[in-house]
Amino acid sequence: MIVAIAEKPSVARDIARILGANTNKNGYMEGNGYQVTWTFGHLCTLKEPHDYHPEWKHWSLGQLPMIPDRFGIKVIHAEHVEKQFAVIEKLMQAADSIINCGDAGQEGELIQRWVMQKAKAKCPVKRLWISSMTDEAIKEGFQNLKDQADYQPLYYAGLSRAVGDWLLGMNATRLYTIKYGRQRQVLSIGRVQTPTLALIVNRQKEIENFKPEPYWVLSTIYRDTLFTATKGKFTTKEEGEAAFAQIQGKPFRVTKVEKKTGTEAPPKLYDLTSLQVDCNKKFSLSAEQTLNIIQNLYEKKLTTYPRVDTTYLTDDLYPKCPQILTGITPYAPLVAPLNLQQLPKSKKVFDNSKVTDHHAIIPTGVNPKNANLTDLEKRVYDLVARRFIAAFYPNCKFATTTVLGEVGDGSGLDFDSDSDSVSASVSKSVSESKSESASKTEFKATGKTILEQGWRALYGKTDNQDEEEKILPNFIEGEEGEHTPTLTQKETKAPPYYSEATLLRAMETAGKFVDDEELRAAMKENGIGRPSSRANIIETLFKRNYIVRKKKRIEATETGVELIGIIKEELLKSCELTGIWEKKLRDIERQKYDAAQFINELKEQITRIVNQVLADNTTFGA
């Protein structure tokens, strides 16, 4: 008998139907030579400290660091988990072969490997590796089963991540809680959650310590159009007023009219993070809510595998795209303008080198009309479907107009300040400028007009399109006339608080906070955490009362601020730590780095951190 094991009951039912295993049994389905069973995500986990040594059950500084000689796994203590594991164990021990049908990723590999190890499975194992749950994809996957050995490096990387997180989390959390917690609460430390919390705390401190500085902007209105001085930002009111006086009552003259056309390519396809960002901005969904919804759409066969970090498709998907576009019938009017026999194939969409395990999130081609979707599921599906259709639409074409003008009669001032910086200083005082050679004050206005909507036709008029499109009057070089100058006082602004959308982006692009060039490059691909784990990390920080939501913005609590303040080991709260890990874990996957070496280095690092904290006399909240 062949035992196929999936990650969820719903996935197992789909696989069983395809395989012809239609007889329901207790915890599995059987038929046609197959027994199809399932886990509920993780059934097994790494052992807890007291499972290795009874004395480790009690939190004590004297027991740190806790470093097991050999890590082990155990079945999670929950009645429904233990009951299902007993079913799986019995099936696997009697199986002729096993097919690992877990989610096709690092976590899915780890979940099923641990179950097979704990069940003491001895028979050969094959791997089902698919990117969507459509009947066609499942059938194709079973026709092209892979050897389990092909995914050994993926398993080693997942195992190394889990062991590393155990070593750091268990030791550092106990260390900081006992040393600084004052028995008030557990001070949780984690490789991903602590640097994420540090991002929020650092931004908050930057906002709290920010002192706005005034500046003055010189502009003028000519023919109902606002022109801004190209060198007209001043750090003192006197300088601004002097500049204003030099142009008041003098004619405005158009010196240059430049018109250019340009194109805007369709937006990239969705990876998980960009979908979470858009759903937060458009629907105020949390990252976790978006992940749950897109996971549901995947299990309902409507979209492809969601836990992805690429916005590209592989070349072999190109021939399937017409069928996918035809299948999403509610979008037929949007698909109609496309030539399905000659779809464009852009390198911005199809690029094998940008895809590892899974491609971008796209529709599967299954008609969503019959899927009984919730309102939110419809909205998220709509984002994915339109983004996919847009990939085959032509570029948006637009025209930009730049108009330069000047005011002055040769007696003006030369205001040589940096127009890109609100804190720039005027390089010469008024008295110095008067003695310099005379110059005129230059002004600039820009406008944009959409010539051909292209892919933008899929989205209608956006909220900010009025701002994007600014049609200027027909100016002619050399014309001149009266104008109305203004001197406006403004203030520099503090950076905004993080929203969930901007925090996700900060986690994704955290490499910019790292000095080391090689680590920056590693984090360009990974950032803080994996796309599939970021939502859970943010939710964990909320649950532990380290951060709170205030409408759309995220703020650190007093406890969160204090925790980051007490951590003296900069590596624990820096993006650099996770950058080091992600690079090494990726190298383990690629068989360029040894998993055992990774763990040994971590053991040494944990020992050093424990010794440093034990020698510290600081108190929490001091």
Summarize the entry for a quick read:
This protein has 21 helices and 19 strands. The protein has helices at residues 9-19, 49-52, 79-94, 106-118, 135-143, 152-180, 193-208, 237-247, 272-283, 287-299, 321-327, 332-335, 375-390, 430-435, 465-468, 500-508, 517-526, 531-543, 558-566, 575-589, 595-614; strands at 2-6, 23-25, 28-31, 34-38, 44-46, 73-75, 97-101, 125-127, 146-147, 214-222, 225-234, 252-264, 396-412, 439-452, 480-481, 484-491, 498-499, 547-550, 553-556. Helix 4 (106-118) crosses helix 6 (152-180), helix 9 (272-283) crosses helix 10 (287-299) and helix 17 (517-526) packs across helix 20.
**Percent of residues in helices:** 25-40%
* Widest sheet: strand ordering: 2-3-4-1-7-8-9
From the spread of the alpha carbons, the general shape counts as flat
Q: Mind summarizing the main beta sheet?
A: 7 strands, mixed
Structural class: alpha+beta
The count of helical stretches stands at 21
**Any idea what the radius of gyration is?**
30 Å
